[in-house]
Amino acid sequence: MSKRIVVIGTGFAGLYSALAARRLIYLNSQGAASEATNIEVVVIAPEARLVVRPRLYQADPSSMALPLDDIFRVTGIQFIKGTVGAIQTTKHEINLIDDTGAPSTVSYDRLILAAGSQLVRPNVPGLEQHAFSVDQIEEAAKLETHLSGLAAYPPSLARNTVVVCGGGFTGIELAAELPARLRSIFGQNAGVRVIVIDREDEIGPDLGPGPRPVIAQALSELGVEVKLGTAVTGVDANGIIAATGERLEALTVVWTAGVAATTLAKQIPGEKDKFGRLYVDRDLRVPSARDIFATGDAACAATDDDGHYTMMSCQHAIPLGRSAGNNAAADLLGIPTNPYSQPGYGNCLDLGASGAVVTDGWDRKVICTGSHAKSAKNYINTALIYPPKADLTEALAAADPTIQIEIPS
Question: Is the dihedral angle over the CA atoms 202, 205, 210, 212 positive or is it negative?
């Protein structure tokens, strides 16, 4: 009797979950009588594509989606196009809707939730109607179209101003990128204004004090203004209003503050962290739903024995996917799992024309800055995080859960 592993999502964690499951099944499928030959791997997502989400702050975001049809075909992964509406954990069933609106149901023996995360949009007046984002590829493309269209407007300070709401990782990278992008639109001698506003008192609050002086210096060199300790209380077509009562005139406002795990996690019983991520054990299994594994941005997993937990980044999503897929397949095969562990940790933050900054360890010690760090960032963005080719041997090898990602320095 056949069994089925269902993966929800085609992000980094979803892709590598499916590949890792197929890898272990392939390695254990020698002989027609092998139980592994009867295990299907099915991926459900709205599109068979991987969006290189960490790059959506850059220009030309529409080009940052990679089709997965060929890699699914050569590795024997089945793809179902649809949007998951409900996960019925007691029935081991998933209810989904295809792009025509037709409903269907898919059963599973093991489920891997890898549906990622999304930007949190708080109830700020005018935010939904007037603010842009770079959270999803369609949203980033919408911002790109808007920026390109600004050249048709009469020159003004508001036209040439972008307010970035949120001074975290994404907000910093976008703000550092924008001065050059705006000058490419308005002319190299145009006066442009980029402002980062954040309710926290420090830039990059989650990045720690280590890289903060480098970030502050880079933003200053780029002419990016930073307003800290100030919340945004309103957004309209012509700018934002701060809690201080100050108004910033801008035809472009980009919201980057806050992220939460997929809302599908709410349908799975189990303890969750402040981001809505499911706590998982070392095999990435949800303890209260033993046939379900959570991975990527949907999982809060211990990276080591020192109290560190995964971050919402591709640095953790790819190894998490490898482990989740491997362990779900191992569970069905009745063979030992490979517990997730990722003690190494590093960051590489893009700082636009000022280069980048690379840090090492959870204390985020700066080990590289400037053009050298920029080369490392370019390698990460254009090679390290990209999936393998549609070749069976290469694709399955890339899904080995013993591989560790290292941030280059």
Answer: negative
